[in-house]
# Entry
Amino acid sequence: MTSTSAGADEHFVAPALSGVAPLSMFDAVRARLYLAIELGLLKAGDRLPSDARSAEALDVSVATIRRAFGALADENVLTRKRGRHGGTFVAADVDPTRWADDPAVQRFRDEAPTVRALIHERALIESALAAEAAWRHDDPDTTAHLKDARAAIAAAESAEDWTQFHAADVRFHRAVAAASGQDWALAQHRTIADALYAFFVPYPIAYLRESNAQHRAMVEAIERGEARSAAREARAHVLELRESMFISPRPSGSGR
# Structure
């Protein structure tokens, strides 16, 4: 996803399933970081990526990231340091109960049914597209897209943090979808995936790299022309989000 250049009046466009008013991008960023810290996905002392990379991964402007990081620094949730070894870090001894009643955080929690519905929609369309790609595995266009998917796997493997992994993950899933040859379905796939990405929170890179093994298994099944296995791998990979996203009380990746 690419970040927007809008200012402080940016809005997070809530999925149509939710039927509620949009949440400002500023509040959405705050809520996503609050939840990542509360769930143990971001820990005291963890360094956040640069403002530019964080903005791209969270699909907001750099100005919004700076404003959100600054607000959290004022609350002593984050610390901002200057100099060669400076950056933005998660502060020590942060008490998550401080934002228990925060309206933006509550909005994210209230969206749990929307998130679950999006996960199931995405599992359905991605498993179907993976099967289609497997049936077409000898087609030159499919082979080219699978080469791009392999490159995305390599990029994810070498990612230094969640922002770089996220970019590689988006590239991977779009490449697999394109490998299906079902161009008419790509817009719908992207709409569902992007709606779900709007609920993405930062994850430890070690956990994300482990999930890359599922990407590899999916591509290998497609390249073998095993449609049933490809669909199974794609479905399991997406449905795992029910356990890894903030809708789970103990997200995989949190170390809890």
Summary: The domain at 111-244 is CATH 1.20.120.530 (Four Helix Bundle (Hemerythrin (Met), subunit A)).
